[in-house]
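Task: encode each sequence below as structure tokens.

Item 1
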Amino acid sequence: QAMESGGGLVQPGGSLRLSCTGLGFSSGYYAVGWFRQAPGKEREGVSCITSSDGSTDYSDSVKGRFTISKDNAKNTVYLQMNNLKPEDTGVYYCAQDMSSRYSSSSGTYYCLLQSSVYDGWGQGTQVTVSS
């Protein structure tokens, strides 16, 4: 089961780096996704990264501000969040997709921002962006 850390309270324009550990490298996961849920809202996909070739995807709301990366040696995936906005507030979760997704047309692996394909959810880490 994944475990998130690194959340906290930050002012608008600030930065945080979230970590996702406890990943099942030995069980052969294929992608890790970051999701967030604000009070009263549905969980939404933020970013994901494939374990094989490091292909990434981002939601439009965070593109250009957030960067996902992985350290295979540490079995850890990071989410660097810069220029944070109040609307980024929420509980952030990471999880693993155990299905391999390969595009024969592009010759690359890809990941999805759909929570339904992910498993092994952590307890989440709170991110609050407020002045």
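Item 2
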Amino acid sequence: QPQLVESGGGLVQPGGSLNLSCTASVLTLDFYAIAWFRQAPGKEREGVLCFSYSDDETFYAASVKGRFTISADKAKNTVYLQMKNLKPEDTAVYYCAAPPRADCPRRLGHWAKTFEYSYWGQGTQVTVSS
């Protein structure tokens, strides 16, 4: 059974940094892209970024571009979301997800659509507050 497990959430002050991890089992980075989504209370789940190891390509939401970056450790089958200059509006539960494909869904911004993703982690809470 494919599984995605997030870790690294917590409380951070505005302007601070936090790193999240997403470790995949059964799924491998060669054959599955990995995306990060987030969901704030009362809001819809939104795409943060999608990363394709095979294509070496990343799509970012405008709200996080320049502040969030992605890296991967293929040997550990893990991707890392580095978040800098965090803002209170970044507060949300962060989920990693995988589509049934190695590349990020490209058509018309579909990389950020939840229906494109077959596998989901359980989420990790990120709270940005002073």
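Check on item 2: The mean pLDDT is 96. The CA atoms of residues 28 and 77 lie 6 Å apart.
End of task.
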